[in-house]
Structures are given as structure tokens and as C-alpha cells.
UniProtKB/TrEMBL annotation:
SMART domains: HATPase_c, HisKA. Gene3D superfamilies: 1.10.287.130, Histidine kinase-like ATPase, C-terminal domain. It is found in: Cell membrane. CDD domains: HATPase (cd00075), HisKA (cd00082). GO terms for biological process: cellular response to phosphate starvation. Keywords: ATP-binding, Cell membrane, Kinase, Membrane, Nucleotide-binding, Phosphoprotein, Transferase, Two-component regulatory system. GO terms for molecular function: ATP binding; phosphoprotein phosphatase activity; phosphorelay sensor kinase activity. This is Sensor-like histidine kinase SenX3. Its main location: membrane. One of its GO terms (cellular component) is plasma membrane. It catalyses: ATP + protein L-histidine = ADP + protein N-phospho-L-histidine. Residues 147-363 form the Histidine kinase domain. InterPro entries: BphY/WalK/GraS-like, HATPase_C_sf, HATPase_dom, His_kinase_dom, HisK_dim/P_dom, HisK_dim/P_sf, Sig_transdc_His_kin-like_C.
């Protein structure tokens, strides 16, 4: 947006400069006024200069890249109409327009535009600033706030209702104990949600890890497994550490543990009793791949592209029953992005799922040291 404001000031300066240089007795010159070409060359906005016949005298590379200009023609009909009105009455006009998207998967591009006369020869200057990413971020922020509000209402509402119920059942100790247990469950769910929101807000946006260093993958795997032992033991699910030992990634140890814990928690939540979840690492060139595999219910193919979205749930009722916040996989994705890596998923309904974190190896090369796959003693 700063480039658009700068362009607006430059536009006014150019207009004043050219008006001072021109007199009624001057011959009509269809070329650019002195100095205009140099100014347009440094503007970050898409810039186009039209002559009195609507032909393009000068267009920046950005204007052509976005498809606003083709050859000597201005392709956006709305911009052309604005230019003619400006030429007719000499008034500067501002607006927003949408054009067909020029990037893969982008349906449209939104521009903030400003059109002004350039001198007295019928020339018009058009500035267009791409606002697509800003609009997308605003939409994501609105959706995020709406989703958070919705997710908070459920445990907060449940706590309020349970508190009223306990008050009415004060003379029934058994009912009080039962509803108090429910309150503890909802309070824990609310705590997990707030913690996940804090974690996600800290790492989202694709910012690099602030103070990266060597992170032993073995230690991160064992720490994440240790944090998930209680939930796994409750379902008699065995947590297994395997693969290649001695590997290190370049990043942040706590973020790696957080990502693995979320993947393991997710695997345990959607796996039947008496199964196992395997966490393994292996070298992959200049990266380390850490995978979490389960024998769970699997993920429908149509939902696999969306599972890393915030608050997306394949089965909302089941997710709430397991205490999930809907943010775990979004956190995993942002941890991967913050490390300059990626997370992928393989899944088949009824056959389980495998989530794989691919992260840069410390030192630029993963060094394999074989070891035997052994279930942790604490994970029964």
C-alpha cells in the first residue's frame, strides 16, 4: 500500500511539473513529458500512460505481467472507462477493480487504482496496486476470529450449564461428582484450545525460526512420545520409536517436539485400542524425514487436502468427543514452514495414516546411524 501512496504523490508532482512546462502556444507532443519515464521506472505499482487515443505510451513490466496491458492496448475495460472520464473532466479518480487471476490457482486479482490527467495533451496516468494478498490475509483473519469465537462458545457454554446443574443438584453428592468431572473435562478442553491458539499465533505467518540450532531428532521423538504416554496407555496403544538414530535437524527443539506431539496425539485419538503408533526418522539427502504412522481409521481422500486448515475436522462430532481443538495439524504445518520444510500425508480409509515431516538436516547432510526399532518401556 505504501507504493500506491508514493505513486499518488509522484502522480501529483508529475502533473504539476508538466503543467508548468506547457503553454497554450506549445505544439502537441505525443511523447512523455520530461522526467516521467524515469519516475515510472522506479514505481513499485503497475503504471500505464495513455495518449489521447487510449493507446499505451508507456507501461511498467508489472502492468504487462498482470495482463493489464497487451501490446499498445489497456485490457481492463473499467480502467479504460475511468481514463476517458479523467481525460474529459480532469478530475483524479480512485477505485478498486478485479481482473482474471494470472497465477496458478488464483481466480482473480484485486487492484486499488488511481487515474489522473498527465499534462494538457490528453495523456492519462494509471496506477494500479495489487491488493490480492492483503484481501486474502484479511479474509483469513476474519475467518479465524469467527472460528475461534465459535470454538470457545462450546466449552464456555458447557461450563456455564454444568455450573447451574451442580447448583440445582447440591443435595445429590453423586450428581455433583459426575457434573464436576464433566466440568473438569470442559475446562481442560478450553485450556488446550487456548494453548494451541497461543502456539499457532507464535509460529504462523511463515516467519523463520528466531534462533535455530542443531536439534537431535532422537531426543525430540522420545520427548514427544513421553508427553503422549498417558493418552496412549488409556487405550492400550503402544508407542514405538524407530528408524535411524543420530540424526539432527537445523531448527528449534521445542517446536519440533510440539509438532511431533500433535501428530502422535492425533494418531492416538483416531486409532482403535490395542494397536500401535510408530514414530521413525530417516535421512533424505539434505533433509531428515520424521514420520508418524498409525493403524487408525484413515482419512477420506477428498478431505486430505484440507486437514491442515485451522479448525477443519473430517468428523466434527468424533473430534469433539476425543477433545481435539482442530488446530493440531495446522500447528504442524506452520512448524514445518517455519523450518523451511514441509509436511505430507498418506492415508487410506481403514488402513491408517502416515504423516511425514521433511526438515533441513543440520550441517546440510543427514548422516545415518542404524539402530533397532524398540518400543519404549513406558509406552504399554
Amino acid at each position: 500500500m505504501g507504493g500506491f501512496v508514493l505513486g499518488s504523490f509522484v502522480m501529483l508532482a508529475i502533473r504539476r511539473q508538466t503543467e508548468k512546462r506547457e503553454t497554450p502556444s506549445e505544439a502537441v507532443d505525443e511523447g512523455l513529458p520530461p522526467g516521467v519515464a524515469s519516475v515510472l521506472a522506479v514505481l513499485p505499482s503497475s503504471a500505464v500512460v495513455l495518449d489521447r487515443e487510449d493507446r499505451v505510451l508507456r507501461a511498467s513490466s508489472a502492468a504487462r505481467a498482470f495482463g493489464l496491458v497487451r501490446g499498445e492496448s489497456l485490457m481492463a475495460a473499467e480502467l479504460l472507462a475511468m481514463a476517458r472520464k479523467v481525460r474529459r473532466d480532469g478530475e483524479i479518480r480512485e477505485s478498486e477493480i478485479e481482473t482474471a487471476g494470472r497465477k496458478f490457482g488464483q481466480e482473480s486479482t484485486t487492484f486499488a487504482v488511481r487515474v489522473a490527467p498527465l499534462g494538457s495533451h490528453g495523456q492519462v496516468l494509471v496506477l494500479a496496486e495489487d491488493q490480492t494478498e492483503r484481501r486474502r490475509v484479511e479474509a483469513v483473519r476474519r475467518d479465524f476470529v469467527a472460528n475461534v469465537s465459535h470454538e470457545l462458545k462450546t466449552p464456555v457454554g458447557a461450563l456455564s450449564l454444568l455450573a447451574e446443574t451442580i447448583q440445582d443438584a447440591a443435595d445429590d453428592p453423586e450428581a455433583v461428582r459426575r457434573f464436576a468431572g464433566r466440568m473438569q473435562h470442559e475446562a481442560a478442553r478450553l485450556t488446550y484450545l487456548v494453548q494451541d491458539l497461543i502456539t499457532l499465533s507464535r509460529i504462523q505467518g511463515g516467519e523463520p525460526v528466531p534462533a535455530p540450532g542443531p536439534v537431535p531428532v532422537d531426543e525430540a521423538m522420545h520427548e514427544a512420545i513421553d508427553r503422549c504416554n498417558t493418552k496412549a496407555s488409556a487405550k492400550d496403544i503402544t508407542l514405538v520409536a524407530g528408524g535411524t538414530e543420530g540424526l539432527s535437524i537445523f531448527g528449534d527443539d521445542e517446536l519440533l517436539v510440539t509438532a511431533l506431539r500433535n501428530l502422535i496425539d492425533n494418531a492416538v485419538a483416531y486409532s482403535p485400542e490395542h494397536t500401535r503408533v510408530v514414530v521413525s526418522a530417516r535421512p533424505a539427502g539434505d533433509c531428515v524425514e520424521v514420520s508418524v504412522s498409525d493403524q487408525g481409521i484413515g482419512i477420506p481422500e477428498g478431505a486430505q487436502e484440507r486437514i491442515f486448515e485451522r479448525f477443519f475436522r473430517v468428523d466434527a462430532a468424533r473430534s469433539r468427543a476425543t477433545g481435539g481443538t482442530g488446530l493440531g495439524l495446522a500447528i504442524v504445518k506452520h512448524v514445518a514452514v517455519a523450518h523451511g520444510g514441509e509436511v505430507t500425508v498418506w492415508s487410506k480409509e481403514g488402513s491408517g495414516s502416515t504423516f511425514t515431516l521433511r526438515l533441513p538436516a543440520f550441517g546440510g547432510q543427514a548422516v545415518p546411524v542404524p539402530r533397532t526399532t524398540i518400543p519404549l518401556e513406558a509406552a504399554q
